[in-house]
Amino acid sequence: IGSGSYGDVCRATDCQASLTVALKRVGDVLCCPLLAKRVLREVCIMRRLSHRYVITLTDVFISMSMEVSGGIDLYIATEFADGGDMYHLREPLTPQHVKFLMWQLLTGMSYIHSCRVWHRDLKSENILLMADMSVKICDFGLSRSAEEVKLRYYRAPEVIMSRGQYSSSIDIWSLGCIFWNVQTREEPVTPGQGLDVIFNVIGTPGWSDIESVPSESWRSYLKHLPGRVRNLTEQLLGYVDQEALDLLFRMLAFNPGRRCTAEEALSHIYVSNRLYFAFSYKYSM
């Protein structure tokens, strides 16, 4: 049914529990220390997390390798999301549907961050959907505890410019990119590209934000850039209302210190009236 970090995923049945699961096989898991360490980290993090909007780990087991003589394959079983992933979602979404999805994602991410875990690889392919359109954040293969973060998919500006000097706000940047994508079905910033592409969207930073950058060489680079005005409003004209636009501004702020947290985003007027839009979503299906 797909592939995750360093492993293919198939649909399977847990015969003991009579449960349909998603089963990821990591072939020859002990072939190198780096792979073994990453898989162990993913399993340990998943065992720590228990939340309705985070994929549930149901089992972990090993077997003799199917491909390498004397090797060991490791299998990770999780609950099966029968609605596919957000990237392949083709169903038209109303503004209320988008609100409900974003509220779930922010709620799940607030919990993950409260456990001092940073996902680092948030993208629409890693947001699974159940049949009732509830979300499941998955694929923690690149996740780290708060002490060991490195790089990720939708790279926030501070990830490009620093060597590990960043925080959980990198996940909020990624959620902002997903928010944009679910509204327009387009990418605001091509994954993996640099600051120039980012500044085409959010504009160049002001002097106070430049001074917050730890690296002297990066501060010098930013100060000599020609100023550019953010064009978020123009690009999203006709897609979102002012409340959604304001939240997006806060999630895609250049300065991580000015970027909202998941908890703060949940208090924003765009998603704070959750009982209304959850009710609206349920009865509009």
Automatic annotation (TrEMBL):
GO terms for molecular function: ATP binding; protein serine/threonine kinase activity. GO terms for cellular component: cytoplasm; nucleus. SMART domains: S_TKc. GO terms for biological process: intracellular signal transduction. Pfam families: Pkinase (PF00069). Residues 1-271 form the Protein kinase domain. ATP binds at residue 24. Keywords: ATP-binding, Kinase, Nucleotide-binding, Serine/threonine-protein kinase, Transferase. Belongs to the protein kinase superfamily. This is Protein kinase domain-containing protein. It comes from Selaginella moellendorffii.
